[in-house]
Structures are given as C-alpha cells and as structure tokens.
Design a protein that fits this description.
- The protein is built from 11 helices and 2 strands, in the order H-H-H-H-E-E-H-H-H-H-H-H-H.
- It has a two-stranded antiparallel ribbon.
- Helix 6 packs antiparallel against helix 9.
- The chain is globular.
Length: 240
C-alpha cells in the first residue's frame, strides 16, 4: 500500500475530508486515471483506499457507487472492485473504440444534440429535491481553485441535470457520452490561466439552465443548454 500512496501523491493524505460527493468522485477518478491500472485490474480494498484518498468509508462507498453506475468499475462480492474491461458489458468495447475515433469537435456536436434535450426533460420532470441538488452543484463551479477542479464540478453539474430527468435511459445515454467526453476532451485543451476567471461565461450560462429548469420551462431549458454548449464550443474550438 505504501507504494500506491507514494505513486498517488502525499497531498491527498493531508485532506481531512471531502465535503461534497462530487469531490470524492473526482478524487477516485483521478486515482484510477493516474495510476497504473488497466481494464480488469482490481482496485485496493476499501480500507486502503480510504487512507490513500484521505476520505471516510461512507464517502468512498458513495464515489464507488457513482463510478459503478457509470460503468467505469464493477464489483464482485468477495473478490473486490475492478476497473471495467472490454467485454464486461455490452458498451465497454464500443466506448473504447469511440474514444479512439471521435474528435473533440465531433464530441461537442454530439453534446449539442443530446444535452439540450436532456435539459428539456429535466425541466418537465425534475423533483424539488433534484432542483436543490442542481442549484448546489451549479454553485460549486465558481468555487474551483484550478481547471481540474472546475472540470470535475462541471462534469458533475451536467450529470446532475441528466439525473433530474428521472429517466434511466436518458441518464444511461448521458453516461456513455460523458465517458467518451472524459477520454476525448480532457487534457486536449490548452488553458491560458491557472483557473477560471470570476467572470467566466459558463457560470452565468449554468445559472440560466438551472433557472429554466426550476421555472419548469422546457423550451427555455433546451435553449439555455444549447447556448451554453455553443458558447463552450466557440471558446474551445472556434465552432458554433
């Protein structure tokens, strides 16, 4: 276990807790992505992961649950937790191939096709509790201390919208798209500053999406998400 701790970095051990579930999910994602794990590899036991990541057992289990729902890991009682491998599910192999074939611009166009429709469904079906979770998630993005933290919070924000649809099929489609998004888009964009500026356009754009969903206005929610993603596309790739 000592080797794993040294490989992941001592900085994680100094954090006493993770105040938000999204932070725990992001930390676990980073541990898997930066480690030497390959599809099919078993992760360390939970008692070791809590020490490596510096989080409570309950927070770790919530993060593991989230990654399992997204198909990133799978668990076998009595054997442990494994990184999802080709053939573990019907989608794993195809997702692996997609990440090698899809360009960032193609990915953004796919998002422009799916996510406005998801926002529309969220406006129609979100519960009051889902709206509260969405507002909390939206508020975390401006708090990000660097781009890595912003990307994690942004990722969680968009997934919270998909969860608010109360439609397992739409959530599954979003999860597949989001897995490709992580592999294709993360790390491909060169940032000109260490963190998002206070006036970063996405903050207001996120708020507009939340306001439309809270107002139960499906047309406005669809339009607000399309404006947001078009803005992101324009900033990153010069695309509308």
């Amino acid at each position: 276990m000592g080797q794993l701790i040294n490989q992941f970095g001592k900085s994680m051990l100094t954090k006493p807790s993770f105040p938000y579930r999204d932070d725990a999910v992001a930390a676990l994602w980073k541990f898997i992505a930066t480690g030497s794990f390959r599809p099919g590899d078993r992760l360390p036991p939970e008692r070791e992961l809590t020490v490596i990541l510096g989080m409570s057992r309950s927070m770790l289990r919530g993060a593991l649950d989230a990654l399992e729902r997204e198909g990133a890991i799978w668990r076998h009682v009595g054997k442990g937790t494994f990184v999802a491998a080709r053939g573990d599910s019907a989608d794993t192999g195809s997702l692996s191939e997609l990440t090698r074939q899809v360009t960032p611009i193609q990915l953004m166009r796919a998002r422009l096709s799916l996510e406005p429709a998801i926002s529309r469904e969220a406006a129609l079906n979100a519960s009051n509790a889902a709206v509260i979770r969405l507002k909390l998630s939206c508020g975390r993005c401006p708090e990000a201390a660097d781009w890595e933290a912003y990307e994690a919070h942004d990722d969680a924000f968009h997934r919270t919208i998909a969860e608010a649809t109360d439609n397992v099929l739409l959530l599954s489609l979003f999860n597949q798209l989001n897995q490709v998004r992580r592999a294709v888009a993360w790390g491909t964009v060169i940032r000109q500053s260490p963190q998002p500026a206070h006036e970063h356009p996405s903050f207001a754009e996120h708020s507009a999406v939340v306001a439309a969903i809270e107002a139960r206005d499906p047309l406005a929610a669809h339009a607000a998400m399309r404006v947001h993603l078009s803005s992101v596309s324009s900033r990153l790739f010069g695309e509308d």
